[in-house]
Design a protein that fits this description.
The complex is a heterodimer of chains A (465) and B (93).
Chain A: H1 6-25, H2 30-55, H3 60-80, H4 86-111, H5 119-146, H6 160-179, H7 186-204, H8 212-234, H9 237-260, H10 265-270, H11 276-281, H12 295-303, E1 307-312, H13 314-318, H14 322-334, E2 338-343, H15 353-360, E3 368-370, H16 371-374, E4 383-387, H17 396-399, E5 418-423, E6 443-447, H18 450-463
Parallel strand pairs in A: 1-2, 1-4, 2-3, 4-5, 5-6
Helix pairs in contact in A: 1-2, 1-9, 4-5, 4-8, 5-6, 5-7, 5-8, 6-7, 8-9, 12-18, 14-18
Chain B: H1 3-21, H2 29-40, H3 43-51, H4 57-85
Helix pairs in contact in B: 2-4, 3-4
The chains are: A alpha/beta (465), B mainly alpha (93).
């Protein structure tokens, strides 16, 4: 233990909080982002060292053991995770962060005499415990759905919304009881943890796999908010600042995702999406004709185009065709074709996921364009190539008021001079709606596995000239 | 610290968070999530504080579990973010 006055401690915490802010600020561009992340990690190191020097005493060995075990697991997880599994990893991190915040908050009531605590500290304990516990179990359910250990279909319990309301009321009542110093009792806390853990499960199970990006973003926000709550319990400003940064970040991403899916957060949270819709549309058989072509024809069209936009969806990652598409794009660029990638916010399994998958395959980041950047360019583009994306290219979302996806922001693929769609079959997307894009005169379908199709195109483009 | 100062810090930090995070481009939203996740692992500070002051075995185990979970978050979060950001390269022209 070192004599560090609380003023010096707080100034050092302020320095590390400022470095966190600067670190996130550098994420404004891929050119400075890596440096920003390092800045944040140095800030973390400062905060940890200050705390360890000031507070630890005879029990430092346990803390060091904890740090070593945690670091070991952290290194393993971060080194071996596949980029396609990033949403699962973030879900697991959310769970751990939420749990750690809950533990820190609960400690005050379980192991210290709660009679000494003010109503505000007790209320903070209740708050951090609730949010931390919900984040913990909710994130593990999200992990299970993303990893497909659990069914990705919504699990709909009877009367689930009533049950949830009942549990939320119970949680609020217990939280209030716990917060009143005269009534406060540790047993309320145990009950509160139990019910909050159940609530976390019940909130996430009715939500379908396709909506998991929203859930992961929301739980990300919760883990931050739980951390801020723990900061209030300990009166520690660096916890409060970082917790609110993460809370804000998660909420902003949640809003971006719900907007891109044309849904409200409430609609996502009530769940069940994709269960009823799927069955109602399966009755109609699609009989309209589509034009299909071969990889050779497609290669010909691409090789003689001036500008090409690739529109990747998660199907591209499922087919593991990221490297092939980069190879194709590099070949086209060598031929003098202008190539860009148009990425819809929900193209991956979490915000920005598709960008990471393409960056991993060496696609330069300045060729990755988001919806707003690229949408005006389609009408000036010779060929748009859709790979593994469906609903986000359906022009009906702009025009057909009766369509369930009406109003959803889409990529204006139909405005390109010609369109090639790589697809396994004519099956509909998550929304269960048939995509009008496929039936346009300018659209050619290239059926088959995306990886094989692109490999075929690469081969044919090589043989052009 | 006084209660009111903590609340002021909280509210101002939310505003700063909103301002800087809306400037992060969609391309970097996944690293933003994993990186901010690592930052929220700063609750490790709290876990170290409680683990420094335990009076019995159960309390020690409880708080060290907190240290382990927060450390996974911090170390894993920063490393995986670095791994991702290292993949983002500009086109060579």
């Amino acid at each position: 233990m070192l004599e560090i006055s609380s003023n010096i401690e707080n100034i050092l915490y302020l320095i590390s909080a400022s470095m966190f802010i600067l670190g996130i600020k550098r994420l404004a561009s891929p050119a400075t982002a890596r440096n920003g992340n390092r800045l944040s990690s140095i800030a973390m190191l400062i905060a940890i060292i200050v705390t360890a020097l000031k507070y630890t005493d005879t029990n430092i060995q346990w803390i060091i053991i904890g740090l070593i075990i945690g670091s070991f697991i952290g290194v393993i997880l971060s080194k071996y995770v596949q980029m396609t599994a990033m949403p699962q990893l973030v879900a697991v991190f959310n769970a751990f962060g939420g749990a750690a915040s809950g533990i820190v908050a609960m400690y005050e009531v379980i192991f210290r005499n709660s009679a000494d605590h003010s109503a505000f500290v007790l209320a903070s304990v209740a708050f951090a415990t609730i949010v931390g516990s919900v984040t913990f179990t909710g994130s593990f359910i999200a992990f299970g759905k993303l990893q497909e250990i659990l069914t990705t279909k919504p699990i709909l319990l009877p009367l689930r919304n009533y049950l949830n309301v009942l549990l939320i009321l119970a949680v609020l009542a217990l939280g209030i009881l716990l917060s009143i110093p005269e009534l406060s009792d540790v047993n309320y806390l145990y009950l509160l943890v139990g019910i909050s853990l159940i609530l976390g499960i019940l909130i996430v199970i009715p939500i379908g796999g396709a909506d998991m990006p929203v859930v992961v973003a929301l739980l990300n926000s919760y883990s931050g908010i739980a951390g801020a709550g723990a900061g209030f319990v300990l009166g520690n400003p660096v916890l409060i600042i970082s917790g609110s940064l993460v809370g804000a970040s998660g909420l902003i991403l949640t809003r971006i995702m719900t907007k891109a899916m044309n849904r409200s957060l409430l609609n996502v949270m009530l769940g069940g999406f994709g269960s009823e819709e799927g069955s109602s549309s399966s009755g109609e058989e699609e009989t309209r004709p589509v034009t299909s072509l071969t990889a050779e024809d497609a290669a010909m069209i691409l090789g003689y185009a001036e500008s090409v936009i690739f529109v990747p969806g998660y199907g591209l990652a499922v087919a593991q065709a990221q490297h092939q598409i980069n190879e194709l794009s590099t070949l086209l660029k060598d031929k003098g074709v202008s190539v860009k990638f148009a990425i819809h916010p929900v193209a991956g399994r979490m915000p920005g996921h598709m960008n990471v998958l393409l960056a991993e395959a060496n696609v330069p980041y300045d060729e990755l364009k988001d919806l707003e950047e690229i949408n005006n360019e389609f009408d000036r583009t010779d060929v748009a190539v859709v790979v593994g994306a469906n609903d986000v290219t359906n022009p009906n979302a702009r025009t057909d008021k009766s369509s369930p996806i009406y109003g959803m922001p889409i990529l204006n693929v139909d405005k390109a001079k010609s369109v090639i769609v790589l697809k396994r079959s004519m099956a509909s997307g998550f929304s269960g709606v048939q995509n009008e894009l496929f039936f346009l005169d300018k659209t050619n379908m290239l059926f088959g596995d995306a990886k094989d199709s692109i490999e075929g195109m690469v081969k044919e483009v090589r043989e052009l000239d | 610290m006084e209660l009111i100062s903590l609340i002021i810090i909280f509210v101002l930090a939310l505003f700063i968070g909103y301002e800087i995070i809306t400037k992060v481009p969609p391309t970097l939203h996944t690293p933003l999530m994993s990186g901010s996740n690592a930052i929220s692992g700063v609750v490790i500070v709290g876990a170290i504080i409680i683990a420094s002051n335990t009076h019995n075995t159960i309390a020690t185990i409880f708080s060290v579990v907190g240290v382990i979970l927060a450390t996974i978050n911090v170390v894993g979060g920063f490393l995986v973010t670095d791994r991702m950001l290292a993949m983002f390269k500009k086109s060579k022209k």
